[in-house]
Amino acid sequence: MKVLVPVKRVLDYNVKPRVKADGTGVDLANVKMSMNPFDEIAIEEAVRLKEKGAATEVVVVTIGVAKAETDVLLTARAMGADRGILIATDDEVEPLAVAKLLKAVADEEQPGLIILGKQAIDDDSNQTGQMLAALLGWPQGTFASKVEIAGDHVKVTREVDGGLETVDLKLPAIVTTDLRLNEPRYATLPNIMKAKTKPIAKKTIADYGVDATPRLKTLKVVEPAKRSAGVKVADVDALVGKLKELGVA
Amino acid sequence: MKTLVWVEHDNVSVKDATLSAVTAASKLGEVHLLVAGKGCAGVAEAASKIAGVGKVHLADDAAYEHGLAENVAPLVASLMDHHDAAVFPATTTGKNVAPRVAALLDVMQISDILSVEGPDTFTRPIYAGNAIATVQTSDTKLVITVRGTAFPKAAAEGGAGVVEAVSGPGDAGLSSFAGAEIAKSERPELTSAKVIVSGGRALQNSENFHSIIEPLADKLGAAVGASRAAVDAGYVPNDYQVGQTGKIVAPEVYIAVGISGAIQHLAGMKDSKTIVAINKDEDAPIFQVADIGLVGDLFKIVPELTEKL
Ligand SMILES: Cc1cc2nc3c(=O)[nH]c(=O)nc-3n(C[C@H](O)[C@H](O)[C@H](O)COP(=O)(O)OP(=O)(O)OC[C@H]3O[C@@H](n4cnc5c(N)ncnc54)[C@H](O)[C@@H]3O)c2cc1C
Ligand SMILES: Nc1ncnc2c1ncn2[C@@H]1O[C@H](COP(=O)(O)O)[C@@H](O)[C@H]1O
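# adenosine monophosphate complex -> structure
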């Protein structure tokens, strides 16, 4: 079984996002970019399936700037993915169009499982996996904290508001990762060197005949209302006093 | 505009998150509801009393019992010939189903809206709430998920909706429900609690978490939350997590105990009315958003606080 893992290049999660003064978006010039943290978890899960013998090949795909070839796609291969596909574009591509492109890739590659992140930490959309599942007509196990392949089915434990839920899905299927699915390994330097020889296919959106015209127009981006730091109290008695003032104690 | 709000429920009662979604939908136009489940006529009856509701579509079928997206999404899509907007609460269930509906309709979903600025224009948080985007859609049908803390709840009583049975495509045959571990608690629900006490990595272990955080929460009648670090370390289950990727809360009072205040945590609680922080590091980022801070060792402070309340 082949596993396909779509990964997104995003502002590193340790960097504080800064809204551009002209209100057009978040400043991405000269800041550290990394693989979306949930996608690292997706790669890790796919590589573990291969190590266990449940998967035969791990293919990683990204839609984004050409630079992704030398950072996120390299990291993914260093973590154990066998080859990469770069669909290069300088434009922002919305989840719906990403899902359409991924469907085209899936039609070509015929994976048995596609593992995505549950959410990209830049747009916080939490849509792409579910949309891809709809377009392919496949079942979906979103927000996964456990994935068990059994024959032509996969059992997915999902993190839901009330606790945990388990669903049984027919393969081929879509899985989206939650934080506690696994702890991704580091891409070590020797593995990064080795990964450079693993193949990358370079494509464009036009190669897949997908209309990626955005449906949403961003009219403006602003900073949220700032909270100002309040007061520090000296001791527990003072805190009790404050809580009483608030009427909660 | 006619909206269709998907009602979140457990086949017994309507979940609160639905009420905020109804408020958001009412800003767009007429509000119709969809109750999909099994043996859920009572839920539809209750939902019809929500203030401002028109028609309540009731799809009662074993295929919808557990809200499987593979079965529910085609049902919602089939009702969209007669509605202009599908509206879901941004809960884990809503977030699971809504994008599947959007793709079936070839619509770009607008996730987690904070406000309705016009019939096609909304605000939504991006980058863990560090930026707020105003977006305008060119799609003719809308698919929206609603952040519960951003809209007041519609009154659960006072409406006079009419329940109408509908049938949908049924079981897609792709997936089945295999079980759930749903935590039962006497405490208020995190997302609707007035007061929340949250603990972080500093609690060190599960025993401490229970013996230090819970008595304080009991005193205050509060819900209990946690940082990701506390959940990852196994002190408490996943449904306690507050943050960018956990629950979004906005209680009257949020008490953060031994939580540093990473942006991913702040994303889930910085709209709380009053934030109280207890942390031994006076430079912890949580103090930058806290209205009331107390610097010191939580193992001394919290028991003393619980005692004195
Ligand atoms: C993609 C992604 C998503 C994430 N989503 C979330 C999310 O949804 N929610 C979330 O919470 N995090 C999330 N995180 C994790 C987040 O970045 C932080 O790692 C996490 O919030 C830290 O938890 P903490 O504050 O409990 O632990 P720490 O950062 O370790 O802080 C512990 C604090 O306790 C204080 N302390 C220690 N001992 C004592 C004592 N005896 N008395 C008083 N104070 C003490 C310390 O001074 C410190 O400030 C996410 C991270 C990523 C990468
Ligand atoms: N441009 C992209 N290229 C490849 N994968 C993507 C892209 N955008 C989103 N994804 C995948 O979809 C997941 C969810 O993203 P989103 O729906 O934008 O929150 C991510 O974690 C990735 O796995």
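# post-check
Chain A touches chain B through 80 residues (CB under 8 Å).
The mean pLDDT of chain A is 96.
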